From TrEMBL:
This is DMT family transporter. It comes from the Bacteria. The keyword Transmembrane applies. SUPFAM superfamilies: Multidrug resistance efflux transporter EmrE. It is a multi-pass membrane protein. InterPro entries: AA-Vitamin_Transporters, EamA_dom, EmrE-like. Residues 6-134, 146-279 form the EamA domain. It comes from Paractinoplanes rhizophilus.
Length: 295
């Protein structure tokens, strides 16, 4: 990857490691659907003026179907799954489970990128890591298992969305793509958010968390992520989940007093190793040179 791609990679890695902590803060006073709708609305209010100023809103009208599909698989679906999932599990575990996304992408790309022995070993290690995380951290807790299942389903949705961006939406400007998906999210979910409007006083930290989720973890992060996919491809872009869990765990342990178990460290190590192996490029075998005929 070039320097610009690396900068985008680091930016997205950090910005998408923070949301799990902020979600945990916001859902203390706000419903999950309110949080997701609020994220979408705030991000759309930031992004659409940017797209208008750059004169790229016309691309949104021309590709509304593509943008709508992406809004469902990259924002509405996974954001709701993660936010409802965090009602039952810690922000640290949420960030760790999302780290399985590169394994999902490797599986989805297996037809175009053959599964070598190393990549298969990576897939096995990745799923073993998930089994350790889920089996030991939420064992016997039905609601915990439900929350973990929601987050894993969100990781699958993220994987599908990442490939979809590269194959179907690479020609749409990032500010238009991000603005369109967040605007659609706000339109779809705002009626449900109104039904769950808080009846009790909401603490200032919950509003602040929601604002940060919308501006930084959604608007800025989506802009950077879509640019990263165009710059480096879906496989490499999915590797942002190498860094995300580290940020998520540190914030959860330091600011939310979440416990750091040996199973958490072991599970993440397996997931990280699996992701690294399963996303290694397939070596290109050189064809033997044809013999030069002797005159």
């Amino acid at each position: 990857m070039n320097r610009r791609a690396w900068l985008l990679f680091l930016l997205v890695s950090v910005l998408w490691g923070i949301p799990y902590f902020l979600i945990k803060v916001a859902i203390d006073d706000l419903s999950p659907v309110f949080v997701v709708a609020g994220r979408g609305l705030i991000a759309a209010l930031v992004l659409l003026p940017v797209a208008a100023a750059r004169g790229t809103l016309g691309a949104l009208r021309a590709r509304l179907g593509t943008v709508s599909v992406l809004a469902v698989v990259h924002i509405i679906g996974p954001f709701l799954l993660i936010t409802y999932g965090e009602v039952h599990i810690t922000s640290s575990l949420t960030g760790l489970l999302i780290a399985v996304e590169p394994v999902v992408i490797a599986l989805l790309l297996s037809r175009s990128e053959p599964l070598t022995r190393i990549r298969v070993a990576g897939l096995v290690l990745g799923f073993a890591g998930v089994a350790v995380l889920v089996g030991l951290d939420v064992s016997g807790d039905r609601l915990g298992l439900l929350g973990a299942g929601m987050v894993l389903l969100a990781a699958v949705s993220y994987g599908v969305a990442t490939i979809f961006v590269q194959r179907r939406a690479a020609d749409i400007p990032p500010e238009t793509l991000a603005g369109g998906t967040t605007a659609i999210t706000a339109v779809v979910l705002t009626p449900f958010a109104i039904l769950t409007w808080p009846t009790e006083p909401v603490h200032a930290n919950a509003w602040a968390a929601l604002a940060a989720l919308g501006v930084f973890c959604t608007a800025v992060a989506l802009l950077a992520f879509y640019a990263l996919v165009n710059e480096a491809g879906s496989n490499r872009a999915g590797l942002v989940t190498y860094v995300n869990p580290v940020v998520a765990v540190l914030l959860g342990v330091l600011l939310l007093n979440e416990s750091l178990r040996w199973s958490t460290v072991a599970g993440f190590a397996l997931v990280a190793a699996g992701c690294w192996l399963s996303t290694r490029p397939t070596p290109i075998r050189e064809q033997p040179a044809e013999p030069v005929p002797v005159a």
